[in-house]
Amino acid sequence: MSSFHYAFKVKDIESTRKFYAEILGCTEGRSTETWIDFDFFGNQLSAHISQDRPLLDYCGQVDGISVPIPHFGCLLDVSDFQIVQQKLETAKIDFLIKPQKRYEGKIGEQLTMFVFDFSENPIEFKAFSDNDEVFLNS
Fold it and tell me: Cα(43)–Cα(76) distance, rounded to whole angstroms?
């Protein structure tokens, strides 16, 4: 699978560095006074300072739960999901959606959790029980 690049808005570099590098353990890439790149589990995130960040819309309905749109995230294996969960819990990050299993016993069974970074960007972490089911219909 190919990696992606995602550029998004943040309130400042300091809190962004703390969340992505110190808490999640993402390696920092290039940066300036107004943007910073991270290796986000093999993908390139590029965080740019902006005071004009969009409001969230909780229009997403997934398995009976309202989720904020837009959001981004990554697919992890189960052990990496548990490591990220532990890092977030240790840092006392509040979960927008607590770690849980979705679609249990069905095609697409997955662990999922949502958090906000320190600029209030919603991030979803997922781990499929069977990675061959990521794009399968139920």
Answer: 12
Amino acid (one-letter) located at 112: T
The residue behind tokens 């006074």 is 33
pLDDT for 57-85, tens place per residue? 999 988 788 999 999 999 999 999 999 99
Q: How many domains does the chain have?
A: 1
Q: Determine how β-strand 95-102 pairs with β-strand 72-75.
A: unpaired
Q: What is the mean pLDDT of residues 18-27?
A: 98
Token pair for residue 53?
């960040």
Nearest in space to 16 (alpha carbons), one of 5, 2, 29, 1: 29
In contact, 61 and 78? CB cutoff 8 Å: no
Residue 119 within any structural domain of the chain: yes
- By residue range, what is the domain housing residue 55? 5-133
Q: Cα(75)–Cα(13) distance, rounded to whole angstroms?
A: 25
